[in-house]
Amino acid sequence: MNAKELINALDYLEREKGIDRDTLISSIEKGLLSVFRKRTNMESGVSLHLDARTGEIAFFDQEGRRMSISAFPLDRISAQSAKQVIIQQLREAEKEATFQEFKKREGELVSAIVERYELKGLLVTIGKADAIFPHEHLLPREHYRRRERIRGYLLEVKRRSKEPPVILSRTHPDFIKLLFKEEIPEIKDGIIEIKAIARYPGECTKIAVASKNERIDPVGTCIGVKGSRIKMVLKELGGERVDVIRWNEDPEIFITNALAPAKCEEIRVDPAKKEALVILPDEQLSLAIGKKGQNVKLAARLSGYKINVKSRTAIREEALPAVVVLPGVGKKTAESLSRVGLSSIKELAEAGISILLKIEGIGKKKAEKIIKAAKEAISETTDTRR
Fold it and tell me: Is residue 198 located within the same domain as residue 292?
């Protein structure tokens, strides 16, 4: 690298990256002085000065008198080492400038230009800086061509890395949060607040919103008339479904909202254990669970509760008395027996036939058969324990 090339590099770093020229010159001087001291017969008191305007190197003795550079000749290998010192310092300065520039932008929505796919992800540029979308931070089924524009969430900036230092993501929940903030003025202005986001990237997202103004419907405002407001978000996500949910501090109401489009019949919440049992009509169960269980899982993530969904039929079956397992005792008969206080097999085995005859639909023969079955069941259990 000659003096002109060095000055051009310094000009670029100062102009484009905002690097302090004097600081960079000082670090180059230290590196060069180290090379000369190792490779020549330089005395310990000699100092080196790099002219920031011309790129020329000068040496000064202990009294500050200028010395001829010819007094410290470098062989070819040493000269190459000096060149590498300069190049390395320039590179390090550029990396540090990139780090400082983008570190303060972590958490922002950024726009980049696609360069190429590599083993570790999609390489892009933001201005003149290299950045990368690791494969796991790209949406499924997405593919980009060179020079296409792509937007992402600035996830992290690394100071020391062999890979591009700027890490971007399209799968992070905050990517959607920032898209909504960009498209919905009420979110940007703080009138509508995003309370929680749960996401299966490329498949489905649930976003919970609340309004600070009672007259403004947070869900309708985010979606817009015929989806006019949310359409740009959906377009950016390439087919990912987004459910906008009304947030509520009451977990029963919020979980009901979060399980939409399924319609819940009853919810039993245990705030201490952060668990909820949701009972639905039979035809609503599959809707509540969703494809691959995604709907109920996203509702659980959104609410912070462990959610167990069951159909009304399943709940009824679980509530049936134990006697339902006996031969000749169906669901209807078991319920009738329970109403007269015969819920367990032991109670039935010890019951008199007169009690059973009071039940509509049970005659003498059926009553005897049921009691006999109960006694045999008790006997079999006793034998097994022995």
Answer: yes
Distance from the first to the final alpha carbon of the chain: 94
One domain for residues 333 and 355: yes
Token digits of residue 165:
């230092």
Which amino acid does the sequence have at 361? G
Angle (CA) 187 188 193, round 5°: 30
Return the half-sphere exposure (C-beta side, CA atoms, 13 A cut-off) of residue 58. 13
Hey, what are 376's tokens?
């045999």
Q: What are the DSSP E strand ranges found in the chain?
A: 47-50, 57-60, 66-67, 109-118, 121-126, 129-134, 149-157, 166-169, 192-200, 204-211, 241-246, 266-270, 275-280, 306-311
How confident is the model over 163-212, as pLDDT tens digits?
788 999 999 999 999 999 999 999 999 999 999 999 999 999 999 999 99
DSSP code of 81?
H
Assess if residue 178 is contained within a domain. no
The answer to whether 304 and 298 are in contact (CB under 8 A) is: no
Give 365 or 380, the one with higher predicted confidence: 365
User: pLDDT tens digit string along 292-311?
Assistant: 999 999 999 999 999 999 98
The CATH number linked to 159 is 2.40.50.140
Specify if 177 maps to a domain: no
CA distance 257 to 264: 9
Cα separation of 225 and 221, whole Å?
8
- CA neighbor of 7 nearest in space, from 68, 82, 76, 57: 57
Q: What angle do CA 279, 282, 288 make, to 5 degrees?
A: 60
- C-alpha span between 85 and 27 (Å, rounded): 10
Mapping DSSP to helix (H, G, I), strand (E, B) and coil, where does residue 222 land?
helix
pLDDT digits (tens, 9 = 90+) for 59-101: 998 888 888 888 777 778 777 887 888 888 888 887 888 888 8
Residues 139 and 165 in one domain: yes
Domain that holds residue 267: 187-314
Q: What is the sign, positive or negative, of the torsion defined by CA atoms of 309, 312, 317, 320?
A: positive
